[in-house]
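Example 3.
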Amino acid sequence: MTRRVIPLLSAAAIAIAGVAVSLSPPAHAEALDDIKARGKMLVAIDPTFAPFEYTDASGNIVGFDPAVLELVAEGMGVEIDYQVMGFSGIIPGLIAGSFDLTATALAVRKERAERIDFTVPVAAGVSGILRRGGDTKVAGTAPADLSGLKAAVKATTQPEQVLQGFNEELEQKGMKPIELLSVETVEQTIAALMAGRVDFVADDVAVLATVIKARSDDLEIVGTVGPSVYISWGTNKDDPALNAALNEQIIALKESGRLAELHMEYFGVTFDLPNENFIPAE
Amino acid sequence: MFDVARVVEAWPLLAKGAWVTAQLTVAATAVSLIVGTLSAMLQLSGLRAGYWLSRVYVSAMRGTPLLVQLFVVFFGLPLLGIRGEAFLAAVIAIGLNSGAFVTEILRAAVLNVPRGQIEAAEAVGMSRWQLWRRTILPQAFVTSLPALTNEFTILLKATPLASVVAVTELTYAGQLVIARTFEPTEILLTVAAVYVAFVLCLSQVSRRMESRFARRWSIQ
């Protein structure tokens, strides 16, 4: 008896796994109805990106995005259930429907907009160049100034893309490209810089400013590079109603001036943010 | 240079992460042992379908990176209507991955059980199931204990990968702390020390089992 049951069970388990993987996502119930029914939204976040999102000493998820999200959730009458995870799992997870939305700061980019839906922008950012204090080797922020240097960036982020664009430009001019070291977290880029493994770090200027404040080391921002980008949250393409519900709350926060207050609190500046046509053409 | 205050401040978060790592390791080890044992038995059972099922499983798991397997399981579960079960996904993926290696470890050990013993067991009228349970598997486990211990220390050190599927284990807990303080040294050294402690525990348990088995079956 047992001899026959075991192979059968294993075969069934493997078959189920196979079917699960090969199936395309079924047209699932509208996420917004789900959230309302549960009274909770499942939100993916990578809290390693101060001041946008990070953890405080007691492990609470804090920062600009969580502050805005709390107001949004309050407006929708639901609670937040955070799913804390590394950045590289977030967009794939959103596409697979592993959670309802992500409130991790995402730079609005055309390729991303093809796979996920963005909410209306909650902030804006621009990449900056950070060097060791007085290191004149990093002379400026033009591609020619950075040619042949080594840079650390967070993998799959906006600053990485800006520097890759620089490299195309440098190659066309026959100049040496920037050598990119792509790592997982902001802290790892800073560690690489302090250890002398790279000459500069490229990341959002608000994030770099937070780093300088937090560390005693001699670091300085040389200037900004690339276009300014809008920062939004993401939802699955199958959930337009959830996207609209989030937008409604965010726009209300903009109109009441509450969002601008949070901008001042976390970034020290305010941003002028559009409510439509914010996806860049390229 | 080493500021203990930083470790003390971070300890509650790190301890939580260490607990998750311990649970993940134990649960995935259990899955690995069960699946690995069944798979080794299937492969040697003489059933053609069982043989190929096990071979395909081992090749698939050994042939693809654990990170990819984690993504497949984590992003596959929502299709079955299971969401937000990050820990479960990590246990399944890491356990199934390790189970393939356990299959091969046990297969080698089973093939080394002397032919005469199997004949003797058959001669006294043991059924196939009794043969496996009483004669083959106990000996295979004892001889493969060092190799299995090795495999499970590797499993322990693969658990940080689970952070990309939303399991805040020890390494990611350390990263969360460092992302706030930007002071990696003390935290990383502490995290490393906890892993060393875990591996020492694991090898201690294995040594104890080895000597117990040795006494019980007076091998050596």
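Chain A touches chain B through 49 residues (CB under 8 Å). Residues 1-13, 19-27 of chain A have pLDDT under 50 and may be disordered.
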